[in-house]
Design a protein that fits this description.
Blueprint lengths: L7 H7 L3 H9 L11 H19 L7 H6 L14 H7 L5 H19 L4 H10 L4 H19 L3 H6 L1
Helix pairs in contact: 2-3, 6-7
């Protein structure tokens, strides 16, 4: 049986309301911040960081409070939701487990894209999947080498001719 991601005792023990945790996750809402100033936001992040990161800081994603409060110290800037995973991957800001998970998905997306005839559609698919450009280059080069090797007749086949 799957375990719930959030436990009420975790949330209650951090001393933040669901709305405050939501702001740490998604950023300031349309009605403005629930926190009076940056010091209060930082204090809330310190109390709720473990819960927020466990719930929303996985799969190559980070809560908005992390981007605002921690990313600058790492030299990172919010790239947009569409590029968040590849950006964190390219900047070595992911756990080993996150990298493995993302690599498996990206590899499948890359292989699926290789089945597409149109280069523009192929690139759009890889952009949509946020496959890092470094992996695209690496995997495409390996694919070209495999294709070249399979196109060259083996010595045995050449001797038969």
């Amino acid at each position: 049986m799957p375990h719930p991601i959030a436990h009420n005792d975790d949330i209650e023990s951090c001393g933040l309301s669901f709305s405050e945790l939501q702001e740490l996750w998604l950023g300031v809402g349309p009605d403005g911040s629930l926190f009076h100033d940056e010091a209060e936001l930082r204090a809330a992040w310190e109390r709720g960081r473990v819960v927020c990161m466990r719930i929303w800081g996985s799969g190559g994603r980070r809560p908005q409070a992390w981007w605002y409060l921690e990313a600058p110290a790492l030299g990172l800037k919010w790239p947009s939701h569409d590029r968040e995973q590849s950006y964190l991957f390219e900047h070595n800001a992911l756990s080993e487990a996150e990298c493995e998970q993302l690599l498996a998905g990206w590899r499948k997306d890359f292989e699926d894209a290789c089945l597409l005839e149109d280069a523009v559609v192929r690139r759009e698919h890889l952009d949509w999947a946020d496959v890092p450009r470094s992996l695209r280059r690496q995997w495409q080069a390996a694919r070209r080498r495999r294709v070249r090797r399979s196109a060259v007749p083996s010595e045995e086949a050449a001797a038969v001719k």
